[in-house]
Design brief:
elongated; mainly alpha; 72% helix; 0% strand; single chain; 2 domains
Amino acid sequence: MHPQYAMAQPQQQTMGQQLGRVFVSSLVMGFGLLILRVILTSLPMIKNAGPIGDTGLPVVIVVKVLLDSAMFAVLLLFTIQAQRLIATHRPELADLGMLVLLLGATVTAALAYNSYQVLQMVLMPEQAELYNWLFILLVLGLLTFAVVTVVRRLDFFTNLLYNGFAQAGAQPAGYGPPMGIPPAGMMGPNPEMVAWQGRYEALAPRVSRAAQLAQGRPLPPELQQAVGNMQAYLQSSQQNAGRMDWAEAKRCLDWAEYESSRVMAALGQ
């Protein structure tokens, strides 16, 4: 029995559109918190207030730290949502989503170091070295995971950068070239990619025509199944090419070609 591949359903919004909405909402929240921070820390009742109890912390410092923490949370939330959107809409780009999350967490940790340092200076002045080492280890740990993510899929990231990051998330579901595969005239040096692209572009119109001709025809059940198979194999080949699994992408093209030949022969084409 032929392996079955589920057909991807078109999304109401592309990944790029959803990422844009998340980015804008996060940007609005971040600017709102920044404006609130400026306003509150300028109020005389807060700016001139004394320390809180025996802590030695001025009220204005506490307000700044609390609002900074809220802005850091917005930044982290944006990177988490971006990572989930990428993993959901483009499973082959899951490593890219993880890289976005790790870099976002690294930037947040670097910003938090400066923001929270005043707390350390007031509450634990003798622990400055410990405070510095904690953040150094945190940032180095996040950067190490980011480097490992890139090295583990070095070919993928190289291909992605070489062919332009602008394609990410913009390709709608269908028969167009998948993410990571450049359009004609922009081919990279990978011969497997070139060979796959040529076969794909030649086969996709044939599969589309076979599916159109088969619509409304009283075909036997096995040929009806072949119509679904050829479309599923073609789309699965697209997805595997996006992951740069060329062997599996070629195998799916072979099956799509076989099934489309069966359908076209039965239709007298």
